[in-house]
Amino acid sequence: MKKSQLLLALLLPFNSVFAQESPVKLEAHSFSKIKITDSFWKPKLEKVAKSALPASVYQTEVKTGRIRNFEKAGRKQGETHEGIYYDDSDVYKALEAIAYSLQNIPDEALEQKADEWIAKIASAQEPDGYINTFYSLMGLDKRWQDMEKHEDYCAGHLMEAGVAYYQATGKRQLLDVAIRMADHIDTQFRQANKPWVSGHEEIELALVKLYKVTGEERYLQLADWFLDQRGRGYGKGAIWDKPEWGPKYAQDAVPVKDQKEITGHAVRAMYLYTGAADVAAAKNDLGYMNAMKTVWEDVVYRNMYVTGGIGSSGSNEGFSVDYDLPNENAYSETCASVGMVFWNQRMNLLEGQSQYIDVLERSLYNAALDGLSLSGDRFFYGNPLASSGQHNRREWFGTACCPSNISRLVASVGDYIYAKNDSGIWVNLFIGNQTEFELSGTKVPVEMKTNYPWDGEVLIELNPANPTRFEVNLRIPGWIKGEPVPGELYSFLDEEPTNFYLEVNGGKVQSPQKNGYLVLDREWKKGDKISYTLPMEVRELQSRPEVLANQGRVAIQRGPLVYCVEGADNGGKATDFVLASTPGFEVKDYQVLDEQVKAISFNVNGLNNQGQKTLTAIPYYTWANRGPNEMQVWIPVGQK
Length: 640
Ligand code: FUB
Ligand code: ZN
Known about the structure:
Blueprint: H1 3-8, H2 15-18, E1 27-28, E2 34-36, H3 41-63, H4 66-75, H5 88-104, H6 108-123, H7 133-138, H8 151-169, H9 173-190, H10 203-214, H11 217-228, H12 238-241, H13 246-249, H14 266-283, H15 286-302, H16 334-351, H17 355-368, E3 386-388, H18 401-411, E4 418-421, E5 424-427, E6 433-439, E7 442-450, E8 457-462, E9 468-475, E10 490-492, E11 501-504, E12 507-508, E13 513-514, E14 517-524, E15 528-533, E16 538-543, E17 553-558, E18 561-566, E19 577-579, E20 586-592, E21 595-606, E22 611-619, E23 630-632, E24 635-636
Bound molecules: beta-L-arabinofuranose and zinc ion.
The site of zinc ion has 6 residues, from α16 and α18.
C-alpha cells in the first residue's frame, strides 16, 4: 500500500495497541484441520515431504545406524550400539515429522516406511516397558543413572511421535510403545518417590500431549512432577559434574516457579518452558506462568537475535551474559528457534497477548526457516548473522537434532495460524489457508488469501452455516508499530508507526483493540469478507548500544522478514562498505534459486574510496543456498 493510501487508513491510537488487558485463555486450532494454500508455505510443505523427509529417511537408516540400533536391540544378540546415546530421538522426531507431513501430502511409500520403522522400534522395547537402544545394547544395568544421558528426552520424543502418528493414521503401535515407556517411568520415579531431574527437558511437554490423547491424568501429574524436580539439588550426572556448566546449564539451579532469568542450554530451556506452559494451562497453575513471564522478558529484552534466534554461545549451546549477541560466531541453533515457536505459541494461548506471536513470527520466518535450505535437503545447525564464507549448509550432522526438528515445524506450521475460544477466533499468522471452525454450535468455514510475507494484503472470507455472532481478532503485528519486538533490544530508526487498513464487506470499519488484536465482534454471515492491509515498508533497525557487535550498524526489515547482504548477489562481496547517508531503499522482484522473493536494493559507499554502489539484500532465510559466501545482517553505517 502506498503512503497516500495509508493516510486514508484507519488511524487508531497506538497506545491502545500496547494496552495489556486481562488474560484471555485460548486453544490452538490444529494444522490437521487446515489446508495451506499460499505460494510461500505450500511449496515449503512440499519440499519437506519430497526432499527433507526422504533425506532424513536415507540418513537415518542407510547412512547411519539409527534404525540398525533398533534392529539390534530387538534381536538381543549382544551387538553393539552405533552412534551417540541420544540417536533414538532422531528416529522419533523424523516419525513425528512424517506423521504431520502425511496429513498435508499423503504418501503411501513414506507411510509404509514409517510402519516398518515402528515395528522395529516396538521389537526393541524391554519387557518392563523401557526403551532406549543405547542402554539395551550397552548394558541395561547402567540405565537411569546419569540424568544427562537423555533417556527421558528420547522417551519424550517417542511420546510426541506416538501421539502424532496415531492422530495422523489411526495406528496405535507407536503410541502403545510410548504409553508403556511412560508407565515404566512413572512407576520407577514418581510413584517410587525417587528424584530424577531430566538432563534435557522434553518429556514434560510430551507427557502433556500423551495426557491429552489418552485422557490419562497420571501423565499430566508426571509432567508436573518432572517440572517440580528441578532446582532442589537432585541433579546428578555429566552436566552437574562439569564446573563450567553446573545446574544452570540445565535450568536446575532454582525451582521452575522461582526462575527469573534464562540460563544454560537454549533448546533445553525452550522445551522446559513449553512444557511448563502446557502444564500451567492444563492445571490452571499460575505459578509457572508468573515465573515464565519474567524469564520470557529476559530472553526477548536482552538475549535474542534480531532474527528471533537465541543461544548465542557455542560452548554451552546456549545463553551467556545479557546482550552477548555476536554475529559471525552466533550459535543460534535451529532447534532453539523451533523451541521459541513452541514456547511463544503456548504463552499466547495462556494470555491472549499478541506480543508472543510477534516473537514467534520473527523466529519462524527468520532464524528457524534459515535452518532449511531452499532445496529442502540441506540444513543449518547454527544460524549465524554474518559470514566470511566459512558457513555452509550440510546434508546431515553427527548430532542430527535440527533437520527433523525444522521438518516437523514446517509440516505443522498451520498450528500457529489461529487460536480460538468460545468467543471467537484469533488470526495470528497470515498464511493462505482453508479451514473450518465450530463456533456457538455453528460450522464456520474460513478462507484466508494472501501473498504474505511479500505483500501485506490479507483477505479473509467467512462462511458460517447460519448467521452467528463471534469475534474475529486480527493480530496487529508489532512491526507495524514503532516497536519491532517487545522491549527495547531492537528499535526502528524511524519510529513513526505505520498503520493498517481494514474493511469489512468493502466498507471501512472502526474496531476496538485488545491485547494487540483488532476485535471484530459482530454477527457474521455467509460470504462476509474482511480485507486487512498491512504496510510493508522497508525499515532500518538499530539495537541497544549494549550489543557491542551491532554498534554503528543497522539491520533491514520488511514485514516480518529480516534481510541480509550476501556475496552471491553482490559480485561475491558482502563487506567493505558503509550504508550511504541516503540509502534509497527499493523493493524489487527477485529470485534466489527457485524462491521468488522481494529483494531490497540500496546504496552504499565502498571503503577505501571505492565510490558509491548499489547492493541487493535478500531475505535472511534464503542465504547460503548458492554455496559458501560472505554475508552480513547488520550493515555498518559509517560516520553520518
Ligand atoms: O542433546 C540433544 C540435542 O543435541 C540438543 O537439543 C541440541 O542442542 C544438541 O546438543
Ligand atoms: Zn538442533
